[in-house]
Design a protein that fits this description.
Elements lengths: L7 H9 L17 H9 L1 H10 L4 H8 L13 H12 L3 H4 L1 H9 L3 H25 L6 H8 L2 H33 L9 E2 L9 E2 L1 H16 L1 H28 L13 H12 L6 H5 L8 H30 L10 H8 L5 H33 L18 H17 L2 H28 L7 H27 L6 H20 L16 H14 L4 H33 L8 H5 L5 H4 L5 H4 L1
Antiparallel strand pairs: 1-2
Helix pairs in contact: 3-23, 5-12, 5-15, 5-17, 7-13, 8-13, 8-15, 8-19, 8-22, 9-10, 9-19, 10-11, 10-17, 10-18, 10-19, 10-23, 11-17, 11-18, 12-15, 12-17, 16-17, 17-18, 19-22, 19-23, 20-21, 20-22
Length: about 600
């Protein structure tokens, strides 16, 4: 056994550096021979229950899991870096990609309220992420947080959607990069794509420029995190200057008559846009994955995450107001709205400034996304839910090169084929799903600690959480299927949510207090985050949920045939499967090193 629970095999892997052999992909016992694999498949039900009921520990994620990479990531980021990473990650995606489409076809000038709703939901999620990132500062982000509080299986499903979120988000921004590049060159966006009429409409416009952009980003991301930070810092400053120009110049050309029909599509249109425009806030979670490379996580992460989100929300609201005051909403261009708006008000030269600024913004979004998604993938691979080859950290650059390249290849392929609207809707589902799980995990973290929380309080907590989830889902479902403005159902569902949240606040004692920084007004804020995220899910079209369901089925197939057995073997080898008092202690979350000393295996416990 190696240091901090790492096996001799893991230590040998670290010494070799970034290698690429069979044992780097499937080193586990279950894959050593066909006989082993068949036996593993026969044990799938027991192994599955083990992974469902096993929860990790903070110390495990901080030491044992992290040690499975070959080298440490370099701690060279400050709160100043994180704020600019946050701004670079978020501003530039949604505001330049989707605002035009949503204002023109879904919500009209009331798109500003859509940004407010999405911003409130995002800020609540930021609070939840911040508390976790301060106490568990590892590259795994929400995957690590969910492993600790909700168990391996939930974390795995979330991990698949995290990866989908980043790949689709990067592909969407890469395709929009082409649209603004066409504007800068005074061309139509279709002039730079290859149209294949024999393919379905949503996949017929091939975008080679998007692929080239992703490849350039890949090179920057693998060279150095600090170097990426410097590039992002410079590009984001230029981008902020362009945003200030848009706001100031736009207000000089504002026409209040364009606000006369403020909400042409009604309240439903506002919330439908909110669900899609949540895409505009995707990226801040990438900042939480950089906690492992932060000099002082307790100070830097709260300032970086909350500060960047506050700046972003204010900028989005001002930009959306300016856009709708410059042009009547039916005339807003859905591909390059700000550039075309300036041209329409007689400032044709300004469209080039806007296009250049948008390109800068979208470039930083791609860069920060590439940095964040690679770190997610690295931590997931450390648990062997994905091949451990992806967890390797290069000794010179201190960056996860393998994970970065694999993720960006996937991004480039999807960006080459897929239409923006499909990407945006599917992205919002994955993001909202993950954020509601993180909020749920925060409530569990505060109110349930193994060995301290009584059985009565645990049962109360489970009941209240089921009621919160059930009432929120009922509200969202009714909103999604009803075509009228009948509010009767909400009079039932909303009080249930309120009473369930009150039950946690009044009748259940908090079992854990945050050590450094904590979300205020727990359980109210995380419970509200759950409700808003589920409600926004109810505003997304059914076709997107079908695609989401197909992706989830793919995840489950990989889980049952590969990921489940690889992670089970790894956990067993490092001591994670040893349980002192049978299933009871597994359910209570005492996995890994805390129960290794008992020396009782799973089979013995049964």
């Amino acid at each position: 056994m190696g240091v901090d629970g790492v096996t001799g095999e893991d230590e040998g892997l670290r010494r070799r550096g970034c290698s690429c052999g069979k044992d780097d992909f499937l080193p586990e016992k279950s894959f050593k021979s066909w006989g082993n694999y068949v036996q593993a498949l026969k044990e799938t039900p027991n192994r599955f229950m083990n992974r469902v009921l096993t929860r990790s520990l903070d110390s495990t994620e901080l030491h044992e899991i992290k040690a499975r990479s070959q080298h440490e990531m370099k701690k060279n980021l400050s709160w100043w870096d994180l704020i600019w990473f946050g701004i670079g990650a978020v501003i530039g995606s949604g505001i330049f990609v989707l605002t035009g489409l949503q204002a023109q076809q879904v919500s009209g000038p009331a798109v500003v309220l859509s940004f407010v709703v999405s911003g409130v939901s995002a800020m609540l999620s930021v609070f939840c992420y911040t508390e976790f990132a301060v106490e568990i500062p590892v590259a795994g982000g929400s995957f690590a947080y969910l492993r600790v509080e909700l168990g391996d299986f939930i974390a795995y499903i979330a991990a698949g959607n995290i990866l989908l979120e980043y790949v689709i988000g990067g592909a969407a921004v890469a395709r929009s990069w082409t649209s603004y590049f066409a504007t800068l060159c005074n061309h139509d966006s279709d002039d730079f794509v290859i149209i294949v009429h024999s393919m379905p409409n949503d996949y017929s416009k091939l975008d080679p420029i998007a692929v080239v952009v992703v490849c350039v980003i890949c090179v920057l991301a693998v060279l150095s995190t600090k170097g990426s930070s410097r590039f992002n810092y410079i590009a984001s400053i230029i981008h902020v200057i362009v945003i200030l120009f848009i706001i100031i110049a736009g207000f000089t050309k504002a026409d209040t008559k364009n606000y006369s029909n403020f909400a042409p599509f009604g309240v439903r249109g506002i919330f439908k846009s909110s669900a899609v425009l949540f895409f505009a806030y995707v990226g801040f979670d990438a900042v939480s994955t950089m906690a492992e490379e932060t000099k002082n996580p307790a100070r830097d992460i709260p300032i970086g995450l909350v500060g960047s989100m506050a700046i972003t929300t204010a900028a989005y609201c001002l930009l959306s107001v300016v856009l709708c005051l410059m042009q009547p909403y039916p005339k807003i261009d859905k591909d390059a709205p700000f550039s075309v708006a300036f041209e329409a008000v007689g400032m044709s030269w300004a469209k080039y400034v806007v296009a250049a600024g948008a390109l800068k913004g979208m470039t930083t979004v791609l860069l920060v996304g590439a940095v964040g998604q690679a770190r997610y993938l690295t931590h997931i691979a450390r648990t062997h839910m994905l091949p451990p080859w992806l967890a390797q950290v290069h000794p010179k650059t201190g960056t996860p090169i393998n994970a970065t390249i694999v993720m960006l290849i996937a991004t480039a392929i999807i960006a080459f084929f897929t239409d923006l609207k499909i990407l945006a809707d599917l992205l919002s589902i994955s993001t909202l799903f993950i954020f509601l799980l993180v909020a749920l995990a925060l409530i569990v973290r505060r109110y349930y600690v193994s060995g301290e929380t009584s059985t009565t309080d645990r049962d109360k907590l489970i009941t209240c959480l089921i009621l919160i989830l059930g009432s929120s889902t009922a509200t969202a479902t009714y909103w999604g299927v009803s075509e009228n403005n009948d509010w009767v159902a909400y009079v039932i569902t909303m009080p249930i949510w309120f009473l369930a949240t009150s039950g946690i606040a009044v009748f259940i004692k908090q079992a854990r207090k945050p050590k450094v920084w904590g979300v205020p007004l727990v359980p109210w804020l995380p419970s509200l985050s759950i409700a808003i995220n589920i409600f926004l899910l109810g505003s997304i079209d059914g076709a997107s949920f079908k695609r989401f369901g197909i992706w989830t089925c793919v995840l489950l197939l990989y889980c049952f045939f590969f990921g489940l057995h690889a992670s089970y073997d790894t956990a067993k080898e490092s001591g994670e499967n040893r349980i002192g008092d049978g299933w009871k202690r597994v359910e209570e979350g005492q996995s890994v090193s805390s129960v290794t000393a008992s020396g009782v295996s799973l089979d013995e416990a049964k």
